[in-house]
Design goal:
The complex is a heterodimer. Chain A is built from 8 helices and no strands. Chain A is mostly helical. In chain A, helix 3 packs parallel to helix 7. Chain A is globular and about 55 Å long. Chain B is mainly alpha-helical. Helices cover 69% and strands 3% of the residues of chain B. Chain B contains 25 helices and 4 strands. A two-stranded antiparallel sheet of chain B has the order 1-2. Chain B has a two-stranded antiparallel sheet with strand order 3-4. Chain B starts with a helix and ends with a helix. The chains are: A mainly alpha, B mainly alpha. At the A-B interface, helix 4 and helix 5 of A face helix 25 of B.
């Protein structure tokens, strides 16, 4: 009885992460993107916490806390401040239309499901579906990075991709803390780097729109 | 023996590494050339003695190189034979090089790569795993590339070296893939493991094809020969001799090692492929040699012919082996090996001779030579011997091995499979044609260079150089004569090697001191020593006899002027006019030979011009389209160097999704 509840709840947490990924993709406003990303990170934290409880693996609580504090609260707030302080254009500048991106996202979920489910026939059902969802989240994060022009939205896409990795990591039994720690730290470093990067770009070009940076490099688009 | 050999190679490497640091004077040249020659002579003699004495196969594993693999060395009969052949030739060439290099504008440029080149060649022979083999092969390629580049101030050399480097890289890439395909995915790259594998992996056929292409590209088999006629003439003459006498033999060794030893029992078609490729190389190579004006290019194309002959014999041996006719297989292999040794000697002699002519006249163009027999009597004698050997005429060494190969062609009716039984005699006929054409080519080369009247001031004023250059020529020519008069020396070595590979001895009495009867007492026989004595007797005895019989009737008269009362040297045969009949018969089809005559209008005093255009089909239809395709692709792909971050990410994303799609589509 408990096994089914554990399965359903972790499944639901994974689905929430995926759904939040689509919400991130759908937003037309930068602040909205940040809020949706915060929601996704909180969902990841929830998934990790539930796995910690159901697998009786207390170190996963640490993972959940890291996800919640760093990615759910600190990162969105910091990015929010950057957007406000630098007075960035609040519209999401897309390279591919929102609708087309959503359709592509659906296609990626189908691909991930088709791919993971047959490959992992021998594994437990829970692991299989979590992996399928995690791969979808990773691919959607990647999609976010390549279909949005603004540097902030690219960072969000990158962190959303990391969320997918964390989801995959907590879904598998016995994954040591080291992995999640390294993921979290790499995220932190990437975040700091991107932050510095923003300021430097902003100082030099008065914009965070990558398009104008590209035109500065003298490239055709 | 193996340990001593490796120590010898270390000495060579040390010489090569220290050569750039010693003061470049006459003493240094003598030291390096003498050191290389000494080590080569020691290695060659030791290998020959071990081969005749029938030593055991020795192996040595050193914990060097890749940590999980180590390096493996092995010295068996096949390696021993090639070691004897290349080192003896190299040692004699070094005697020539001592005098020749000192007269070069920048003699030190070839000094460092020379010992390393020879060490790498020997290391290829000793390799007992794919890693050492490929490493040594690549070392050999790069060292020889530096040697070709020795005259780097000439555009011709740089172009030749570039083409050579590209073909050498192609060759090593193909061999790398061949070993990969042979060993399989989690394969063991030790030769011992490849040799003992009981069942062949499914990709073994691919491995065989790749090895043929890879070793063929290095050996200069048609249509992968394009680098050879460029690199040989561009290099200094002693380097040309080493390339042709040593390196090409190593490439053939690689082919033989792969096909006779590593892959296991042969399929019938391997031999057929080699037989056809060999005969084609022989014919096309010698036809091309016939039409060249540059003496060193003539020799380079003749190398292609001889590589073809050796490959033909290797293929024939494989055919016999596939039909389980082991004694004939051993005979064909012995013929191939003997021809490799003989070619190493006479082609080194010819290239060194071309070097002497180059030193004396600064000419490579046959159209401007002539009459050198009076100015350079000794060089012309040695070149005549080299030409006789290269035209496979008795009593010189080229005849013996080619005769042996033809003997095995006659035995090909014993083959079991129908296709080889049909193809081998046909290709044997092609080989016979190319042997006849080789005689024409060398009559032309020798006649134009040495006979007649000088066609240029340089040829008229040529002075024969002395010193170690001529000593080297004399030693090489002596070697050719010795091995021609006593073919038993070559053949007992080749027989031991063939016995080691095939496991069967030649028929008893096949190789004797006086008579050579390869097919047993019922077959054809050749007695080199008796032929030599007879020819010597004829030559020495005829003149006094004639002088005595017709002494009274001798009278003096004006020389017949052949219908050319004008005594200008330009009324003589030229290189192009000598080869015109054959060019018209064969060249029109093979090389698209076209002659255009530019006649001046009546009253115009300028001379008429006859222009001849030839193409090399392998270059114009093989290399050129590939070069153009690569260039076009490079230009297109160049745009990908300047994309935005988002586009690079998109490329990665596209690649990832494509791979995932492939996985999703192929899994069940």
């Amino acid at each position: 009885m408990f096994a089914t509840i554990a399965y359903d709840l972790s499944h639901m947490a994974g689905a929430m992460v995926l759904l939040a990924g689509f919400v991130v993709l759908y937003q037309r406003r930068v602040l909205g993107v940040l809020r949706a990303f915060a929601a996704q990170s909180i969902a990841v934290a929830g998934a990790a916490a539930w796995q910690a409880y159901s697998q009786e693996a207390p170190h996963l609580y640490v993972t959940a806390a890291i996800a919640l504090l760093l990615k759910g609260i600190a990162a969105p707030i910091a990015l929010n401040r950057i957007v406000r302080r630098l007075d960035i254009h609040r519209t999401v500048e897309t390279a591919v239309g929102i609708g087309a991106t959503m359709l592509a996202g659906v296609g990626l979920v189908v691909l991930a499901t088709l791919l993971v489910l047959p490959v992992t026939v021998s594994s437990a059902a829970l692991t299989r579906e979590t992996l399928a969802i995690a791969l979808s989240v990773v691919l959607i994060g990647f999609l976010m990075m390549i279909t949005r022009r603004n540097a902030i939205t690219q960072v969000v896409g990158f962190m959303s991709l990391e969320n997918g990795l964390v989801l995959a990591a907590v879904g598998v039994k016995g994954m040591p803390l080291v992995v999640e720690m390294s993921v979290a730290f790499s995220l932190l470093i990437a975040f700091i780097l991107f932050g510095m990067f923003f300021f430097r770009i902003r100082e030099r070009f008065d914009t965070l729109d990558l398009q104008s940076i590209e035109s500065f490099r003298g490239e055709r688009r | 023996m193996l340990t001593l050999t490796l120590l010898g190679l270390l000495v060579l490497l040390a010489l090569g590494v220290s050569a750039p640091f010693i003061r470049p004077d006459r003493l240094a040249l003598r030291l390096v050339h003498g050191g290389v020659g000494g080590v080569a002579l020691a290695l060659g003699i030791a290998a020959a003695i071990r081969l005749v004495a029938g030593g055991e196969v020795s192996e040595l594993d050193l914990p060097l190189g890749l940590p999980w693999m180590g390096t493996h060395f092995r010295l068996d009969d096949l390696a021993c034979f090639f070691m004897a052949a290349i080192n003896l030739a190299a040692a004699l060439v070094m005697v020539f090089a001592d005098g020749y290099a000192a007269r070069q504008p920048e003699p030190t440029r070839a000094l460092a790569p020379l010992p390393i080149f020879l060490a790498a060649c020997n290391l290829v022979l000793l390799a007992n795993d794919a890693f050492v083999f490929l490493l040594a092969w690549e070392m050999m390629s790069i060292a020889s590339w530096l040697l070709v580049l020795a005259n780097h101030r000439e555009d011709e050399s740089r172009h030749a070296a570039y083409v050579y480097l590209a073909m050498a890289s192609l060759s090593v890439l193909l061999l790398l893939l061949a070993f990969g395909a042979l060993a399989g995915i989690d394969g063991d790259y030790r030769f011992a493991a490849l040799r003992e594998a009981t069942e062949r992996p499914p990709m073994a056929t691919l491995a065989v094809v790749l090895a043929m292409l890879g070793a063929g590209a290095k050996a200069g088999l048609v249509p992968l020969h394009v680098w050879l006629p460029l690199a040989h003439p561009a290099a200094p003459s002693h380097v040309s001799a080493l390339l042709s006498g040593v390196m090409v033999k190593i490439a053939l060794y690689g082919l033989a090692r792969f096909l006779f030893d590593l892959v296991g029992a042969p399929a019938w078609w391997w031999g057929v492929v080699l037989v056809v490729a060999g005969a084609a190389s022989a014919l096309i190579g010698i036809l091309y040699a016939l039409m060249q004006r540059d003496l060193k290019r003539v020799l380079a194309y003749s190398t292609i012919e001889n590589v073809g002959v050796i490959t033909f014999a290797l293929g024939l041996s494989l055919c016999f082996r596939a039909s389980e006719l082991f004694d004939l297989s051993a005979l064909a292999l012995a013929g191939a090996l003997a021809h490799a040794l003989n070619h190493a000697l006479f082609k080194s002699l010819m290239f060194c001779g071309a070097g002497v002519i180059l030193e004396a006249t600064h000419l490579r163009d046959l159209e401007r030579m002539g009459g050198l027999v009076r100015r350079m009597p000794y060089a012309s004698l040695f070149m005549l011997m080299g030409s006789l050997a290269a035209s496979s005429l008795p009593p010189l060494n080229g005849f013996v091995s080619e005769w042996l190969i033809f003997q095995t062609v006659f035995a090909s009716s014993a083959l079991h499979d129908n296709l080889p039984r049909l193809i081998v005699p046909l290709m044997g006929a092609v080989l016979a044609l190319s042997a006849a054409l080789a005689a024409v080519a060398f009559v032309r080369a020798f006649g134009l260079a040495f006979l007649g009247r000088p066609r240029s001031v340089e040829a008229e004023r040529a002075v024969e150089p002395g010193g170690t250059m001529m000593t080297g020529l004399a030693l090489l020519a002596g070697g050719c004569l010795l091995l021609g008069v006593f073919p038993v020396v070559t053949l007992s070595l080749a027989e031991s090697a063939a016995h080691g590979v095939i496991g069967v001895s030649l028929p008893a009495g096949a190789v004797g001191w006086i008579v050579l009867a390869p097919l047993g007492s019922g077959g054809a026989a050749y007695a080199g020593f008796i032929v030599f004595l007879a020819l010597l007797g004829l030559a020495v005895g005829t003149r006094p006899l004639l002088a005595r019989l017709w002494a009274e009737r001798r009278r003096r008269a004006a020389a017949w002027d052949c219908g050319f009362p004008d005594a200008s040297p330009s009324t003589q045969y030229t290189a192009s006019s000598f080869s015109q009949p054959l060019r018209r018969v064969f060249g029109t089809a093979f090389f698209r030979a076209r002659e255009t005559v530019d006649m001046p209008a009546p009253g115009d005093a300028r001379p008429a011009r006859l222009e001849i255009r030839l193409i090399d089909p392998a270059w114009d239809w093989g290399v050129e389209p590939i070069r153009r395709a690569v260039e076009a692709a490079t230009l297109r792909l160049n745009a990908t160097q300047f994309l935005s971050i988002r586009r690079y990410l998109s490329l990665m994303f596209g690649a990832l999704v494509t791979l995932l799609l492939i996985v999703a589509a192929t899994q069940q």
